[in-house]
Design brief:
This protein is α/β, with parallel strands linked by helices and about 400 residues long. It folds into three domains: about 160 residues, Rossmann fold; about 80 residues, Rossmann fold (3-Layer(aba) Sandwich); about 110 residues, Rossmann fold. Helix content is about 35%, strand content about 20%. The chain has 15 helices and 14 strands. The strands form three sheets. The protein has a six-stranded mixed sheet, sandwiched between helices. Strands 8-7-9-10 form a four-stranded parallel sheet, sandwiched between helices. Strand 2 and strand 3 form a beta hairpin. Helix 11 runs parallel beside helix 13. The longest helix is centred in the last third of the chain and has 14 residues. The protein is elongated, with a radius of gyration of 24 Å.
Length: about 400
């Protein structure tokens, strides 16, 4: 399933064919957005629909094909259903007619594998309610909440919504803070934002926009300038910033100007604390100093974009890493949410900031490498290490990490 640039919580609807998944979605969004048919297998590829959940806000409902689909085409549909798990923040497992067996258990195993909170909805209770023997079967395998449900009326909708609010991870909808715990109120934060050929026309990238708002939310004065005015700022004895945040690609230049006693980090790094695998990045980045001839490095981009000669992931990083290590290295670049078949062949994985994906999607993308104990890093930390300032740019986070 292609993941758009939608960072709302993703709620997946899973279950066997003809259990009423599409009818449940139509009830939740109060309109006919999913095709409903007594013919099994109506839903093919995963389908997304926006919804507003009181107490959570905007969310995305993902309707998936039946996990018991058959035939060659059915197997492809089931594969896409399981692939959708990588994008899901929480799940609704729909059962009906008191059926709970192999298919449901396999799904629950995957929920556990990907750390997805879930509930079980026994649908079509107007025809047949959930029986004690079914609850006993479920309890032998799962402690999830079980709700008897029907789409004939909306009486069970409030209970479903309340349970979703309880199990959806708060980190997926709480107001995020890039700089919380790093800066103190009533100070100055300096944001250095270079404008080069990679910068989008007429706008700023998401981490820069979020940083501006976050400086204000933390009751600070925000000053934004290009790197070409940085020396002028300090020469004119402007207010001393308590923190300087820069684009990672300008680390070398900015580090040479910002006094060593002023904390310095990058947009990519503060964003990684919010959305990336921060602790594994910190642990994995020093692997850059241990690369050997013939090692392979996987670079993961989260978005697809027009590539230029100044492209960070495809051109600059490979060149800088080769120059730093002095080794003959192999690089592979994968964009979007795509992964690789064999992660074991890589010595290291370097992930972009991930500003167009959710935290869950990014963590699941890195999971194969982390599970295989392969070093992972992100663009900002990698560039800092290559410039010999890794310890300096991590200093603002020292108290938080302790």
């Amino acid at each position: 399933m292609a993941k758009g640039k939608d960072l709302k919580p993703h709620i997946g609807i899973f279950g066997r064919r003809n259990n009423g998944k599409s009818s449940i979605i139509n009830l939740m969004v109060n309109q006919d957005v999913a095709i409903v048919s007594p013919e099994p297998g109506t839903t093919t590829d995963p389908v997304k629909k926006s919804i507003e959940i009181f107490g959570i806000g905007p969310a995305i409902i993902v309707d998936t094909a039946g996990i018991d689909d058959t035939g060659e085409l059915g197997e492809k549909r089931v594969k896409k259903t399981y692939e959708a798990l990588k994008t899901i923040d929480c799940a609704i497992l729909v059962i009906a007619s008191n059926e709970f067996g192999f298919y449901e258990k396999e799904l629950i195993k995957q929920f556990r594998e990907f750390g997805i909170p879930y509930l079980i909805l026994h649908n079509k209770s107007d025809i047949q309610g959930v029986e004690p023997i079914t609850l006993d079967k479920i309890r032998e395998f799962s402690k999830a909440t079980v709700i008897d449900f029907t789409t004939i009326n909306n009486q069970g909708l409030e209970k479903l919504t309340d349970e979703l609010k309880r199990i959806i991870p708060e980190t997926t909808y709480q107001k995020p803070s890039l700089l919380g715990g790093i800066v103190e109120p009533d100070g100055v934060v300096l944001l250095v934002t270079p404008i080069d050929s990679e910068a989008p026309d007429g706008r700023m990238i998401l981490p820069q926009i979020m940083a501006i708002r976050d400086v204000l939310d933390n009751d600070n004065i925000c000053i934004v300038l290009k790197e070409t005015h940085l020396k002028q700022y300090f020469d004119q004895q402007m207010p001393r910033p308590q923190l300087v945040v820069t684009d990672s690609q300008a680390f070398a230049f900015v580090n040479s100007i910002v006094p060593s006693d002023i904390p310095l980090t990058s947009f990519s790094i503060v964003f990684a604390r919010l959305r990336g695998d921060f602790e594994h990045y910190i642990a994995g980045t020093p692997a850059l100093g241990k690369l050997q001839n013939g090692d392979s490095i996987l670079i993961l981009e989260s978005c697809t974009h027009q590539v230029s000669c100044e492209d960070i992931g495809r051109h600059k990083l490979p060149r800088w890493i080769k120059e730093f290590s002095g080794k003959e290295l192999n690089f592979e670049i994968v964009s979007g949410l795509n992964t690789v078949a064999d992660i074991s062949k890589y010595k290291m994985v370097i992930q972009c900031g991930g500003c167009v994906v959710t935290r869950k999607q990014l963590l699941n993308r890195l999971k194969p490498a982390v599970d295989a104990q392969i070093a992972v890093s992100n663009y900002g930390m990698t560039i800092a290490y290559l410039n010999g300032i890794f310890d300096r740019v991590m200093e603002p986070f020292a108290k938080l990490l302790q």
